[in-house]
């Protein structure tokens, strides 16, 4: 199996890695991860050709890290769509060459915009006999067909009600639509919190008996993290904060140098996010679909930044507000007040059970979904 992903944002790779871990653990699959833009299309990237950054760097550095989510973000999306439209023929040829090299029996996409190109190229490989699946990592589609092309020759998997309802309205065969209860997260996020919380915190270098606030703004961090932490300087609460800065090394250094008036633990990119969430009392972050899903799965009360929301993330914000799954803030002062309110509420603020919304069972469901895809595709007797 080949899983095609992008490093524009952290959620696509994280979902692909979760899928790889879960399926390979069954002993029935061998999964190869392929970055569409770095491994297949670098020579077709108009951003790299005409600017100092490639398409992923533009998204990660200028939109995610610097918070250019308004007109600049919309212009970026328009540029990306134009890039796809202009270079479609060459892109199809590049992906056709990828299939010849990797010889997949099954292809899965965990990224948007180019799935019609992947489908077209697969139809040239083995007479179109290789099944193709789109596994959604967003809450819903920002634009019609940006994830799910208006055609019937692929399988579609979605984990939210709003996305499933939109899919059901498309001219897509019902037997090729699969529903998960929640977005796909690694199974470790669904495990019970440590029975000995004090020991678990100590093992991570945290004080055993002081409330823990875990802050993460996706896989590439954001300067908003330090801005919000500074808002607590005047009247610091009795907390310790874990800052998960992802691949933003400059941000990590800035937080370490800030001399904040409470204990801090600053981490760069890590696959141990679940361990830090598991020992936390509150999660603070942006509207990233996967990080919100992970925090809800752990059962944490969530405090979500409503500033610099990406166009595809407004559905996450609406869901949180409508379902009362957490609090939102927009300014540093608002953040400080909301955090203190959650701290006063303590355990009463926690989301009940592991796996909200609706009980996230995606990790348990995904092996059965792919077994059914394999069966319907005639790949296994």
From TrEMBL:
The Diacylglycerol glucosyltransferase N-terminal domain, residue ranges: 82-168
Native source organism of the sequence: Thalassobaculum litoreum DSM 18839
UniProt protein name: 1,2-diacylglycerol 3-beta-galactosyltransferase
GO biological process, one term: glycolipid biosynthetic process
PANTHER family xrefs: MONOGALACTOSYLDIACYLGLYCEROL SYNTHASE (PTHR43025), MONOGALACTOSYLDIACYLGLYCEROL SYNTHASE 1, CHLOROPLASTIC (PTHR43025:SF3)
Gene3D superfamilies: Glycogen Phosphorylase B
GO cellular component terms, A-Z: membrane
GO molecular function: hexosyltransferase activity
UniProt record similarity statement: Belongs to the glycosyltransferase 28 family.
Keyword list, A-Z: Glycosyltransferase, Transferase
UniProt key word Transferase: yes
């Amino acid at each position: 199996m080949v899983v095609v992903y992008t490093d524009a944002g952290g959620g696509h790779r994280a979902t692909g890695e979760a899928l790889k871990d879960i399926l390979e653990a069954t002993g029935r699959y061998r999964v190869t991860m392929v970055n569409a833009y770095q491994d297949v299309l670098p020579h077709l990237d108009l951003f790299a050709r005409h600017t100092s950054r490639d398409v992923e760097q533009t998204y990660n550095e200028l939109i995610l890290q610097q918070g250019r989510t308004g007109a600049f973000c919309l212009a970026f999306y328009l540029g990306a769509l134009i890039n796809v439209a202009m270079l479609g023929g060459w892109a199809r040829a590049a992906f056709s060459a990828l299939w010849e090299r990797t010889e997949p029996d099954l292809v899965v996409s965990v990224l948007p915009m180019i799935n019609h190109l992947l489908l077209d190229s697969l139809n040239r490989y083995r007479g179109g006999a290789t099944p193709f699946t789109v596994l959604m990592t967003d809450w819903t589609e920002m634009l019609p067909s940006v994830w799910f092309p208006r055609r019937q020759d692929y399988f579609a998997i979605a984990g939210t009600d709003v996305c499933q309802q939109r899919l059901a309205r498309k001219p897509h065969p019902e037997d090729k639509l699969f529903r998960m209860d929640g977005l796909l997260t690694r199974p470790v996020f669904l495990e019970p919190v440590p029975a000995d919380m004090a020991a678990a915190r100590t093992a991570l270098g945290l004080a055993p008996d002081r409330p823990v606030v875990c802050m993460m703004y996706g896989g590439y961090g954001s300067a908003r993290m330090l801005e919000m932490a500074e808002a607590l300087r005047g009247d610091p609460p009795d907390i310790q904060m874990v800052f998960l800065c992802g691949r933003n090394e400059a941000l990590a250094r800035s937080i370490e140098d800030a001399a904040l008036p409470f204990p801090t633990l600053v981490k760069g990119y890590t696959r141990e996010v679940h361990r830090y969430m598991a020992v936390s009392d509150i999660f603070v972050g942006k509207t990233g679909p996967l990080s919100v899903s992970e925090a809800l799965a752990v059962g944490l009360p969530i405090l979500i930044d409503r500033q610099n929301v990406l166009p595809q993330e407004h559905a996450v914000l609406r869901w949180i507000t409508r379902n009362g799954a957490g609090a939102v803030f927009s300014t540093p002062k608002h953040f400080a007040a909301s955090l203190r309110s959650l701290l006063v509420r303590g355990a009463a603020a926690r989301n009940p059970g592991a796996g909200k919304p609706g009980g996230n069972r995606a990790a348990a469901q995904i092996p059965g979904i792919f077994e059914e895809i394999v069966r319907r595709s005639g790949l296994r007797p």
